[in-house]
Design goal:
The protein has 200 residues and is α+β, with helices and mostly antiparallel strands. Helices cover 55% and strands 16% of the residues. It has 5 helices and 8 strands, in the order αβαββαβααββββ. It is rod-shaped, with a radius of gyration of 35 Å. The model has no long low-confidence stretch (mean pLDDT 84). Keywords: Coiled coil.
Length: 200
């Protein structure tokens, strides 16, 4: 009886051992499958993240293209009865060093306010001319009563105001920035990265 019991116990132990071994093997296979799935998910995530970054950059570039309206505003320029806005704009642009600038249109803009001149809104043909006008204007018109600014979209205006305090602080420390093409830019024309404190 004891021998029979021992044999039965031994048989049962072998069965348990075999089942345990099979369970371990099944678990190992499951872990390997999970590793493979995890690797696939990680690769998919990285691909999606890369695509999202690319789309974000395309969105930014398209936004910048939309903002390129080539409009400038001449602020505080004295008006005269019967004036030719096109002639006035031509004279001012000659003063800022763009004598051959092609102008599509020029007209007074804004509400009439007593004691304040309406802006002279000017659209130039070439975007690069607008950029050069904005670069030259502050120095060239330093002794004049009028000045030139870019005609900003709502998006541009929001971006410009967003970094106003940082721009003032940078100016006090010797770094001069100019806002055009939808971004604050250094003298080389590259957008300034306020997070990293340098031009991109």
């Amino acid at each position: 009886m004891v021998d029979t019991a021992m044999k039965n116990i031994s048989k049962e132990l072998k069965k348990i051992k075999a089942e345990f071994g099979q369970a371990v093997e099944d678990l190992r296979k499951s872990v390997e499958e999970l590793k493979g799935e995890n690797k696939h998910l990680k690769e998919s995530y990285l691909a999606i993240e890369k695509r999202a970054e690319k789309l974000e950059e395309e969105k930014r570039l398209h936004g910048a293209m939309i903002n390129k309206r080539n409009n400038i505003r001449i602020v505080n320029l004295k008006s005269n009865e019967g004036e030719s806005c096109l002639d006035l704009a031509t004279v001012v642009l000659e003063e800022v060093g763009i004598p051959a600038c092609k102008i599509e249109r020029a007209h007074r803009d804004g509400r009439f306010v007593e004691g304040r001149e309406r802006h002279l809104l000017v659209k130039v043909t070439f975007h690069q001319d607008m950029v050069q006008i904005l670069k030259n204007a502050r120095r060239a018109l330093a002794d004049k009563d009028y000045y030139i600014v870019e005609d900003l979209t709502k998006h541009d205006l929001k971006e410009k105001r967003k970094w106003r305090l940082q721009v003032q602080e940078l100016y006090q420390n010797g770094t001069k920035l100019l806002f055009y093409n939808g971004a604050w830019r250094g003298l080389a024309g590259k957008p300034y990265d306020f997070q990293q404190q340098h031009a991109i």
